[in-house]
Amino acid sequence: MPGESMKEALGKLYVIGVGPGDPELITVKASRLLGKTPFIFVPQRDEASPSYARSIIEGIVRGPEQRIIGLTFPMVRDADKLALHWDRAAQTIWQHLKLGYDCAFVNEGDPFLFGTAIYVVTNLQKAHPGVEITVIPGVSSINASAARAALPLAIN
Known about the structure:
The longest helix is centred in the middle third of the chain and has 19 residues. Helix 4 packs across helix 5. By secondary structure, this protein is an alpha/beta fold. The protein has a five-stranded parallel beta sheet, with helices on both faces. The chain has six helices and five strands, in the order αβαβαβαβαβα.
């Protein structure tokens, strides 16, 4: 519409932690957002490998209008190569956000606890500071492991 600001036309990015692997450990909020977000981006090791994060959410994402898109993040220690993939992922997500589509980027565990999402969000914010980003925390493997082993992480 004429007169609308660019910010109003941008989609919103949900960065969603999908827990340690058990689909029943996804939060209610994460499940609700994944059930309605049109574009969902999932990390994968390479183009041929299945995405573990995708396998966690497949029972939730069912809408015919929804699309799951894999983003490649190789398992290497080469910082320059990783930076290239983080930037490429941020730009791929941006292509959908700038058209006004809400998007989700899923991350195993919690997105901001050693998560790939940290780097994608940082690159996206640097290149496009007006993007609205909401982070939905997930159950981390630390908490899930302690619960499964019935060993408290801390007591007073």
